[in-house]
Amino acid sequence: MNELLRAEGISKTYLDSGREVMAMQDVSLHIGEGECLGVVGESGSGKSTLGRLLLALERPEQGNIKFQGVSFADLRGKALHSLRRHIQVVFQDPTASLNQRLPVWRSVMEPLDNFPEVTPPFLADVRHSRRESAARLLEMVGLSREHLDRYPHELSGGQRQRVAIARGVSLNPKLLICDEPTSSLDVSVQAQILKLLKHLQTRLGMACLFISHDIAAVRMICDRIIVMKDGRIVDEFASGRIMGEDRHAYTRLLIRGAE
Amino acid sequence: MSVSMAEEYVRPAVRRAGRLFRDPTTAAGVGILTIIVLVALLGPLLVKNDPFAANMAERLLPPGGKYPLGTDHLGRCLFSRLVTGARTTLGISALVIAIVMLIGTAVGLISGYLGGRVDTFLMRTVDGMSVLPDFLLVIAISGFLGHSLNNLILSLVLINWIGYARMVRGIVLSEREKEYVLAARVAGCGTWIVLRRHLLPQIISPVLVYATLDIGKTILVISSLSYLGLGTQPPSPEWGAMLNDGRAYFQIAPQLMLYPGLAIMLVVISFNLIGEGLRDLLDVRGR
């Protein structure tokens, strides 16, 4: 498996009412092509910060992130723009991550509109038409063409998250970062969304960083799992070894909590 | 999209506009303002007497007869001057508000979104300007540059854009960390697209509310300046200037101050009613 992304020794602090808070301390990880890596931790463990750093929305104070050998640190302007093509995101709450004033097809097409030179294989025959492309993307996530002109508030939570996923995969990215993609949804819908993500990940052959507090969900769809606590990585293991003898005490605690 | 869906679906903006008129006070504001704007636009058709023609033989006449509201100290028709003055007053304030909305929104958007040194520079400028008392600044500018309509507009713009810039920056600061903005950045949107497509629509409604309330204030400032002789220059009719002209004759011909005063009051009240109606309407989240 070729390495897609590598982060080494990254640290990030925040200013919280004048006090410096360590959100992330000396975190190193790597993701292989087509691999699904899970990041588990409670709120405040720094897992969402990790997502934002890997999306180049924020910069680490220390350490380095490399995507296919290219370091994030020197990326500006055009180079940053072309990196975005390969790393996309699905945020936690689609109510917040979709622009409420745009019909969903416009949101879904936004990445493709910004990268007119990109034609993903699954859109090869319809890329000339924006609406046809959007309809194809909606069909890929289990919605239909009649949802094209709806506004986010006219859809259910699960449908909205499907729209956000359609946008996330529209550029056929090499890495999709899912930041708690199911935790704003009803329990009954969560499993469907997880299944959809797993299905798309295999079908499109993309790598996935799956951030969640729910170790059971992560275990279902990830190949490898990292456990974070207080901004540090405390445990790392293949999903099959989740019950292994060498699990960290904190990991066991999370597993017990999930049962 | 099927035809039936297109019929059922009403744009949220349209639905909200409908609700605006259901509130009686707001509807009253809209009604009064519509009448005043119509009067200002159709002015030349309504006015029989020349607003500039002085006739000393017919000065300070009471309302009635040839002059519906009487005449002023130079024998000019008060009604004609009031109607013609509506254009000046409404025109200047609309122009000022349009300019400050553009400048203030642009500065606020850029300052809030880019942050860093740009933000520091722009906001220190704003702080510096807001230290000076509004009215004093206007008087100083009119005094230094001379009394003219252009200088009046310039000075009003200089004091008014600050409030818009501050408000817009505040909204942008709270919006730019939200996930829809982050998602747009990840989707490859440049600064310009994020500002125009995602942040500007969030800002338009509060700016409109602010402008509606601000326009009333601006009309009052224009009128006060004209009253002090620093605004529009005679003989052009302007409500504040008319108040000033009538001051000396208040006891024998109170209508000279009464009617321009009433006109100013009506316009300011109607804008305030509309502004408050808009604010209540747009404040309601999750409609």
Task: Give an overview in words.
- The complex is a heterodimer of chains A (259) and B (287).
- Chain A is built from nine helices and ten strands.
- Chain A has 259 residues and is of the alpha/beta class.
- In chain A, the strands form two sheets. A six-stranded mixed β-sheet of chain A has the order 6-7-8-3-9-10, with helices on both faces.
- Chain B has a single domain, classed as MetI-like fold, CATH 1.10.3720.
- Helices cover 75% and strands 0% of the residues of chain B.
- In chain B, helix 3 packs across helix 11 and helix 4 runs parallel beside helix 7.
- Chains A and B meet through strand 6 and helix 4 of A and helix 8 and helix 9 of B.
Compressed to H and E, one letter per element, the order of chain B equals HHHHHHHHHHH
CATH topology of chain B: MetI-like fold
Helical segment count of chain A:
9
Q: What share of the residues of chain B does DSSP label as strand, in percent?
A: under 5%
Strand order of the largest sheet of chain A: 6-7-8-3-9-10
By secondary-structure content and strand pairing, the structural class of chain B works out as: mainly alpha
SSE layout and pairing:
The complex is a heterodimer of chains A (259) and B (287).
Chain A: E1 3-16, E2 19-32, E3 36-40, H1 47-54, E4 62-67, E5 70-71, H2 77-84, E6 87-90, H3 94-97, H4 104-114, H5 130-140, H6 157-169, E7 175-179, H7 187-204, E8 207-212, H8 215-221, E9 224-229, E10 232-238, H9 249-258
Parallel strand pairs in A: 3-8, 3-9, 6-7, 7-8
Antiparallel strand pairs in A: 1-2, 1-4, 4-5, 9-10
Helix pairs in contact in A: 4-5, 4-6, 6-7
Chain B: H1 3-8, H2 12-22, H3 24-46, H4 78-114, H5 116-131, H6 134-145, H7 149-175, H8 179-186, H9 191-227, H10 239-246, H11 255-283
Helix pairs in contact in B: 3-4, 3-11, 4-5, 4-7, 4-9, 5-7, 6-7, 7-9, 8-9, 9-10, 9-11, 10-11
